[in-house]
Amino acid sequence: MGLNDSSPGAMRNGRGLSDQWAESVVVRPRTTERHITVHKRLVLGFALSILTLIIVTAVAVVLSVRFEECGAPDREGATGESGSRGSGGSAKLNGSKGERTGERGDDEAVQPWRNSRLPGSLRPRHYDLRLAVYMDNFTFSGEVSIELECVNATRFIVLHADRLEVRWPGGAGGRPVNRPGGGAMRVHRHFSFPANQMYVVVLHRELKPMRVYRLNVSFDAAIEDELLGFFRSSYTLQRERRYLAVTQFSPIHARKAFPCFDEPVYKATFSLTLRHDPQYTSLSNMPVESSSLSDEDGWVTNRFARTPRMSTYYLAWAVCNFTYRETQTDSGVTIRLYARPDAIASGAGDYALHITKRLLGFYQDYFKVQYSLPKLDLLAVPKHPYAAMENWGLSVFVEQKILLDAEVSSSSYQMELTMVVVHEICHQWFGDLVTPVWWEDVWLKEGFAHFFEYVGTDFLFPKWNMEKQRFLTDVLHEVMLLDGLSSSHPISQEVEQATDINRVFDWIAYKKVSTCSCQDINAMRSEGRDINIGEMMDRWTLQMGYPVVTISKNQSEQLPTHYITVSQEHFLYAQEVRSNNSLQWQVPLTVAVGNTSAVCLESLIWINNKTETHRVGQMGDNTWLLGNINQTGYFRVNYDLQNWKLLIQQLHTNPQIISVGNRAGLIDDAFNLARAGYLPQGVPLQLIGYLPEETSFLPWHAASRALYQLDKLLDRTEEYSLFSDYVLRQVASRYHQMGWPTNGPGSEGNVLQASYQTEELQRELIMLACSFGNKQCHRQAVAYISDWISSNKNRIPPNIRDIVYCTGVSLMDEDVWEFIWMKFHSSNAVSEKKILLEALTCSDNTFLLNRLLNLSLTSDLVPEQDVIDVIIHVGRNPQGRNLAWKYFREKWDVLNARYGEALFMNSKLISGVTEFLNTERELNELKEFIQSGGVGAGPALPRALEIVEGNVRWHRLHRRQFYQWLRKPPGPALG
Question: Where is the ERAP1-like C-terminal domain (predicted)?
Fold first, then answer.
């Protein structure tokens, strides 16, 4: 599953810059950069480790099933309250109508529906699902016939259903349960249990093991105006409002569309039939097998081919009046991209269609497994809770993550779109074909797909250098921010309640897995080490967080100078809890020894204890040590101050001696070590003093992320100009040297050209210059906006439009805001609409910011999934911070009701609104909100509280030292 991004913007005044590089300032849901030296052998090693885990899991499942078949006790014996009789022919599953358990003293000794998990006595083999979809009043009715295999004798049929009105076939006296060829089973009673979203059928006599039965249920429901289950959306075409309906079942929302066994282990085949008005097209996982028109009402009935065995949450269908373009792979798989007719006509889907064809071939060759279905449809919908969902054969994308207008879309937008598609196509193998048994194992599929975002994108566009470089800043650096909190969690978490499922879908599952699994297991084998791989991996997957490894030159007179002392401890930003933590890891530490002219030696050390001594080679007074070469390990590295001094001197005199990945890694480690109190505040500032000589994008990007983190801490302090002036001094020479992009024919929008990395560096420097107040940068942005307004021709290069729009809105008058607002409504390019909307949040006018906040939530002028981004981006603006924070608290009930069930959306909103809070008053307001009304937010609020407490702590402990250094910075040597 792909998740929508929400990264903090990079503008000095908090105005977000379209969720691209600058927005990676904090832990940003999906971005685009990767690990430094992930060679082919690492990829293979990672794949083998993941496959091993999946195989072990599969074996465990088989054994557990065998165990049940041999007479294991039924799990339904866990509780013992009696239920009540149902109310006759129907029961509303989420209302009080069926919730009468306890009214009568029935004689059942057990009540398996009170368990959070299904009993396991029955398992589905096949669903025959027939639906009639009424788009005129947004309702649907259905019938499902479920073929069940009895594993253990039971009188109870317990399955999931939510928000459905159940009807028995033939009315109240119907016989919904039968044994094919063996007659009907008498039903004692039936009722819903809304607390666990379950529906229960109690039979007069037991179902027998090893026999097959059939459950027949009819139901009615609404096509919801929300983002989960079977929901509706709309768009405008030639001033006409058109509607569509589409499913989103992951993780536990198939039960909103039909009664089912809605846990991933219960794989079954599905035969789906959709009946609807003929003006619509219907889609599902499989191709249409037969189609017919009714003589009575003219409606069309499409019967889709039977699916392979799959989990309920991968079943999907859509009813829409979209058009499509198609292509076909060499092996005969038909690929279609469905979207709004105007988007298809403009060619906005052609790029995604093209790369999908290449990716299917790439994954088939890489995994040595053919794509399993005869077709793959990509569906671009106007609103969706996530970036995308990998339903087998019918992957659904929000428009912003799959439609590309080559004339106006930036290279960063194209790169992000590419990675979403790469991620979802990978899931057609890892997720759809091979599925985790339970949600605590979701990290297997998501970590693997997230890692392959970089491998697959590297295959498509090698010049982007994704796998070897961008993995570093976009995955490793981002997830370490989150995982350095004491509120973090292990990769693998126990999940019992349905309410616990949402918490496993976070960047620990997506990003930490892809970094930890890249540690070079082959290296330990080549060293001849006798290391228990399972035990080593448990340290990384079953423990939260990661270590900081401190390397010191040996100071003891008893040992020669070629020995170093290495220690490890749990890295935490919260200093007060460090002493209470005793976690340890087995750490593969690569160490290099170097001097002013060369890197002399590189060796691998395995660290198993808190403190160890190791031999690395001869060292002199001017020899420096460098650990975690190219940051292939998931940990931070600290040094004694003398070694930091030598590394800083090396960067200032000849930075190229240290690799580009290590330069970026040193910057990220230094700033985060200082923020957490492991280093003096001046060390990272002194280190980036070499940046005017830096010509590579990656170190600049690592530095800009760190500087934006500091910016949000300092932007309301009296001495802020000391900081902004310091940043501008580092930026000025390289910014003026690189200049601004031109907008001549063929000069923009082509990310395939060799100068892509140069373009990204140019964009990064312009963003820094405009964000921190470079006057020339401001003048250029204002000139671009003025030319656009006067000529009505947008000549702003696409790659920097978000920066120019935001800068112009922040500096110019209200008429410019109104102009951008008008363009937002008139544009049909989804990438352009996104950055226009975000630019509106950049205004210094609090009246306009309030207006935007109110319009976004109370009208249909702003797409539903973009409302959260509007609130977050207003909060990034120092002029709008209090407005957004106040608005969030006042509208929490409305926001939580709308987005609370959607994975990531509430946590995205909470973190986005709170991460900029850094005063004692704001901390107290957050605590009061949590105590009084912050329900339904899961772990997001405790995490937000820890981050704000950290912001306040940094001001109390480190701000004075930070500004003292800025007033009198030392020379090249550390002061």
Answer: 624-946
Cα–Cα distance, 808 to 812 (Å, whole number): 6
Name the CA radius of gyration of the chain, rounded: 29
Q: Which residues are catalytic?
A: 424
* Two structure tokens written together for 705: 């992320």
Contacts of 953 (CB under 8 A, 6+ apart): 574, 575
Choice between 931 and 651, residue whose per-residue pLDDT is larger: 651
Given a cut of 60, is residue 600 above it in pLDDT?
A: yes
Helix axis angle, 867-876 to 846-858, nearest 10°: 160
Q: 124 and 199 in contact (C-beta within 8 Å)?
A: no
**Residue where a domain stops, chosen among 276, 302, 321:** 321
DSSP 247: E
DSSP class of 306? P
User: Cα 307 to the chain's mean position, in Å?
Assistant: 28
* CA distance linking residue 917 with residue 926, whole number of Å: 9
Enumerate the β-bridge partners of residue 143. Answer: 130, 218
Q: What are phi and psi of 200, to 5 degrees?
A: -125, 135
3-state secondary structure of 623: coil
Distance CA 144, CA 258 (A): 7
Residues near 573 by beta carbon (within 8 Å), at least 6 away in sequence: 484, 485, 486, 675, 676, 950
Whole-number Å distance between alpha carbons of 580 and 402: 47
Burial of 747 (0-12, 13-18, 19+ CB in 10 A): middle
Do the domain assignments include residue 474? no
Helix (H, G, I), strand (E, B) or coil at 129: strand
Measured between its terminal Cα atoms, the distance across the chain in Å is 49
| In contact, 353 and 327? CB cutoff 8 Å | yes
H, E, C per residue of 819-881: HHHHHHHHCCCHHHHHHHHHHHCCCCCHHHHHHHHHHHHHCCCCCHHHHHHHHHHHHHCCCCH
Question: What does the chain come to in residues?
Answer: 975
CA 966, 970, 975: angle at the middle one, nearest 5?
110
pLDDT at 515 over 60: no
The verdict on residue 290 lying in a domain is yes
Over 90: is that where the pLDDT of 88 sits?
Answer: no
- Structural domain including 270 reads 121-174+184-321
Q: Model-level pTM greater than 0.70?
A: yes
484 and 547 in contact (C-beta within 8 Å)? Answer: no
- In 490-617, DSSP assigns E strands to 547-553, 563-570, 587-594, 599-607, 611-615
Binding residues: 423, 427, 446
**Are the CB atoms for 939 and 932 separated by under 8 Å?**
no
Contact indicator for 53, 521 with CB cutoff of 8 Å:
no
- Cα distance between residue 966 and residue 773, in whole Å: 18
> Residue 53: which pLDDT band, with cuts at 50, 70 and 90?
very low
CATH at 196 = 2.60.40.1730
Token pair, residue 222, equals: 């609404």
CATH, residue 882:
1.25.50.20
Number of domains into which the chain is organized: 2
pLDDT tens per residue across span 478-496:
777 777 777 776 656 566 6
Locate all alpha helices (DSSP H) within 371-512, ordered by sequence: 411-427, 442-460, 471, 477-483, 507
Note whether residue 901 is domain-resident: yes
Q: What is the pLDDT of residues 363-422, one digit of tens each?
A: 999 989 999 999 999 999 998 888 889 899 999 999 999 999 988 888 889 989 999 999
- Asked whether residue 881 is domain-assigned, the answer is yes
Whether residue 438 contacts residue 264, with contact meaning beta carbons closer than 8 Å, is answered with yes
On whether the CB atoms of residues 333 and 315 are closer than 8 A, the answer is no
Structure tokens at 693: 């000589």
Residue type, 72: A
Q: Which amino acid is at 135?
A: M
Contact 686, 969 (CB under 8 A): yes
Binding residues for Zn(2+): 423, 427, 446
